[in-house]
Each structure stands twice: as C-alpha cells, then as structure tokens.
Amino acid sequence: MKILTILGARPQFIKAAPVSRVLRKHMEEKIIHTGQHYDANMSDIFFEELHIPKPDYHLGVGSGNHGKQTGEMLAKIEEIVLNEQPDYLMVYGDTNSTLAGALVAAKLHVPVIHIEAGLRSFNKKMPEEINRIMTDHVSEYLFCPTDTAIENLTNENITHNVFNIGDVMYDAVLYNRELAKEKSNILAEAGLTAKDYHLITIHRAENTDDIENMKNILDAFSKIDEVKVWPIHPRTKHKLADYGLNLGDVPNLKVIDPVGYLDMLTLEANAKKIVTDSGGVQKEAYFMKVPCVTIREQTEWVETLSGEANILTGTDTEKILAAVQKEVNPEYKEVFGDGQASEKIVDIISKK
Ligand code: UD1
Ligand code: UDP
Question: Disulfide-capable partner of 271 in 160, 199, 248, 287 (CB 3.0 to 4.6 Å)?
C-alpha cells in the first residue's frame, strides 16, 4: 500500500512525526513538502529533530495570497499524484497545504485520509475553518482527536469512516517530553527561571492582520509585570514591523526567534502561564497541565476550557490581563486519547 503525505506548515511536521514513524513499519510512504513554511526554524529544524523522513518532493511554493499559494500547490500536487498513483493521500490539520492536497486527490478519485478531522470554530472568517470544512467533506477516512470533533461531523452528515483515535499531538508530546528534558538548554540560553515566566505565541491572521487587535494585545502584555518570553512567528514579526509597533516598548519581554520542538516543549512545561492564539499550543498547555489564556473569541479545542484550564479572551486588553492574573486550579482529564493515535490510524488503514 502506498500513502502520499502532504506537509507544508510547522504544526504538520510535528503531527506527521509520530504517524510517519508507525506508518513506515507497515506500508510505503512518500512525502510532499509544499514549501508553505520554508525558514530553517519553521521547517528543517523539525525534520532533523524529529527524524521525519526527508520529503520525496519539495514544491517550493512559499508565501503568497491564498489563491496564488493554494493554486500553485494544486497544479504541482496534481502532477505528482498522477505519476505516483498512491492508494491514499494523507493530509493533516487545516492549512492551505491541507486543502490543496485534499482537493487534488478527491478530483483524481484518490481516497483522502484527513488527520485532525472534525474541528470547528464556527467562524468562517478564519481561513482554517474554510480549509477544514472543505477537506472533511471530500475525505474518505476522517480521524478525529475528540468526541466533539465526531459530533461536529455528525451534524454535517459525515458519519462514514469517522474514527475518534485521540490526538496525534499527544503522541508527539509523550514521545518527546523526556528527550526535551535531556536535550534542551533553552531556559539557560534565554535567561529564564522555571515557573517564573509566561510563554507567549501569537500568529493567527484574525489577530495579526488587524493593527488595533495587535495594539490591544501589546497593551495587555505591557501591563503584565512578570517576565515574558515570545518565540515570534515570522508572520507576526513582519506585521508588527509594517505597523511600526515596537516590542522593545514592552517591559520584561524577551523576544526570540521561533524555536525547535524540544525547546518549545521545555518552554511550555516550565511556564507559569501560556498566552497564545495557536491551536497546537493550547492543547500542549493542557497536556503539560499549564494554565492557558487564548487570545481568540472561539476555540476548536473546547475540552480545554473545562475548569478554566484555558480561558478565551479575544483581544480586549482588560480581559487578557484579568485572565493572565487569575489563579486557576483545573482538573485535567484524558480527553485527547491515550497517546496511541498513530498506531490506531495505521491499524485502521491497514485493515481496509
Ligand atoms: C499557516 C496556516 C495556519 C497555521 C500556521 C502555523 C494557512 C491559511 N494558515 O499560517 O493555519 O496555524 O501556518 O504556523 O494555511 N513566513 C516566513 N517564513 C516562513 C513562513 C512564513 O517569513 O517560513 C511569513 C511570510 O511573511 C508569510 C507569513 O509568514 O506571508 C504567513 O505565512 P503563511 O504560511 O501564509 O501563513 P501562517 O500565518 O504561517
Ligand atoms: N512550536 C514550535 N516552536 C515555536 C512555536 C511553536 O515548535 O517557536 C510548535 C508548538 O509546540 C506546536 C506547534 O508548533 O507543536 C504549533 O504550531 P503553530 O502555533 O505554528 O500552529 P497552529 O497549531 O496554530 O496551527
């Protein structure tokens, strides 16, 4: 059996690492890297650290408006699918790379396997929401991380070949948590003391593409006395420069380049709080039992909201401040599976 996997953006490399490791014990896999993310610290570092097999194809699509970026991927992926004739095409998550892969395969009648299917924010202004709805509706196998994701698909009449196998990001965390303790020196390198700083990540278009939202967010960060560390996403860095907003004005803030996965796990595990708009980081905060504040109006990961393990604030300065300062004592539950999602996926596909 031959699987063609589409990867393109940082979280997809991390999700693919555990799945690929198991998949290759049982079947042939070829990887297409679309080139959506291309800086070494947004791409290569994950292939090296997580021992993800080198892509068989690199499309070099790079950044661009949605139409240009997705369109270029469509044309290039189509050519490869026609040549490779895979049994299945596998996509992860909700990026433009996900949508491009799914659309090409569906039109060529190659069954699509969607990993992290069924997530919904119910906000169609998010490009990710469009990508995941479209992808789910053309997929043949839908691997969901939570019961909520299954329910979301049921509500859209998608019930065939839908499986809750848990979250592949939990597999990745369990596999790498101890390695991170051994190998990462990021606390010393960044001059941080465990449990004495907040970790920040911001990159969602709904936040970064609006100067007022970014001003409100920075205003909140300025009013938080604690040390803050922010591995900054290139999108955010570019947008802040365009807006003329200077992070040097925020007291006690350490801005660093994007870090590798082992350093990120270390920063997360040792943070007092995590302040983010990332999907993956919200979940990792939950896995690590570190309280999270999410600068968004909705989350797809509603399980994390229980007991205020994660608090949604939107971009209101005062709401962000209040949430960061709030003492919470949540009860963390096993709602993201048992860390064996990759094995379950491969098991199900092998039996088809
Ligand atoms: C993309 C995904 C988003 C995901 C995120 C993970 C879409 C629509 N968005 O958002 O769902 O959460 O990846 O990080 O697919 N850039 C660089 N170097 C890079 C990559 C990006 O400088 O290696 C800069 C460019 O200015 C680019 C901008 O970041 O224009 C945005 O990149 P893009 O891949 O379009 O979207 P992300 O915001 O990264
Ligand atoms: N991540 C990382 N280095 C960083 C920031 C994030 O390794 O500097 C990891 C993080 O641990 C998580 C994933 O990237 O596994 C999340 O990706 P991102 O926030 O870019 O996208 P999203 O999950 O929102 O789609």
Answer: 199
